Amino acid sequence: MPHFVIDCSEQIIEQQNPEKIMQLVYDTAAATNLFAAGDIKVRITPFKPAYYNIGNTKDDFIHVFANIMEGRNTAQKSNLSRQIVSQLKKMFPDVPVISINIRDFEKSTYCNKSMV
């Protein structure tokens, strides 16, 4: 935990190696000191233009879905959001849509393989 899932237009991974993009998100999340570095998980899902619509265009986009365990305050989550978007903006200055949202997991309802 946490999980960072990067949705993006296929063109994004043609501009930059997917490993590099995922590492940027990983390193940025780790630098906030909100998570143990070994616990951070990052995935990327590129979409062909036929499978997305951005304001009725086929503009490139990056959106990060961050799923984190509850317990961080609003300021911490806001800083995490801003840091990740800032770093992605540096890597992709010409991409018109770069965004993130953070969702909290509830400890009481979270379960993984090692817990059963």
TrEMBL record:
SUPFAM superfamilies from the UniProt entry: Tautomerase/MIF
Alphabetized Gene3D superfamilies for the sequence: Macrophage Migration Inhibitory Factor
GO molecular function: 5-carboxymethyl-2-hydroxymuconate delta-isomerase activity
InterPro entries referenced in this protein's UniProt entry, alphabetically: 5-COMe_2-OHmuconate_Isoase (IPR004220), Tautomerase/MIF_sf (IPR014347)
One Pfam family it belongs to: CHMI
Name this polypeptide is given: 5-carboxymethyl-2-hydroxymuconate Delta-isomerase
Organism from which the protein derives: Aureispira anguillae
